[in-house]
Amino acid sequence: MRLENYVALITGGASGIGEATARLFVERGAKVVIADLDEERGRKIESELAPNAVFCKVDVSKSEQVEKMFRMTEEKFGVLDVLFNNAAYSLSKTLWDTTEEDWDQVMTVNLKGYFLCAKYALPLLKKSSHGAIVCTGSELGIVGCVESLAYNTSKGGIIQFAKSLALELAPFGIRVNAVCPSGTETPAFVKDMSRSGDYEGECARLIASYPLHRLGQPIDIAKAVAFLASEEASFITGTHLMVDGGYTAQ
What we know:
alpha/beta, 7-stranded parallel sheet, 8 helices, about 45% helix
């Protein structure tokens, strides 16, 4: 599965799943825009992947910054083949602990950010002969869990966003899908699972619930994104691909 001459923009591209996807895309022949708030980390990855990657500092919840990011992409590459909507704000709180500000922050990044990126990417994606949008959902957009109400709700919304947008963009030949990971060992995951002070124990309990008996790795998700972005998936749109070790099959 190759991605020669593809141009991809990856939000949340400076760490975790986004970083793994950026590296895999470049390895397979693509040029990549790494979009993230973490400029130090983003610049480091840019230098490691040069000349096939460029970094753009962006807050995806700010329309003026998103619009500027896509203008830069057009000036740099002229076209966009793949938008990987991946930036996310994670929050682990119950209903009674979640403030209105917490709720708004999650929805602003995880839903409004995806909307803004799709909206401003569209003119460039229309220029591509194989335009695709991939959105990062989650197993938690399918099943519930405690202490993650706002996050889970946003991820369920992302799955519906991808389905609805797929229908809107089908006349332009642009495919839209979601990839839905389970627990994946990213820096954000490690931070969240370390809150109790027993990271190994928390992971062991989680792994026990997965039929494949391991956590996901960022590269696992990156490979699924590469597939959905490629011509191998040219007749796939409006779906969500579970990359969850079999968890939701139970």
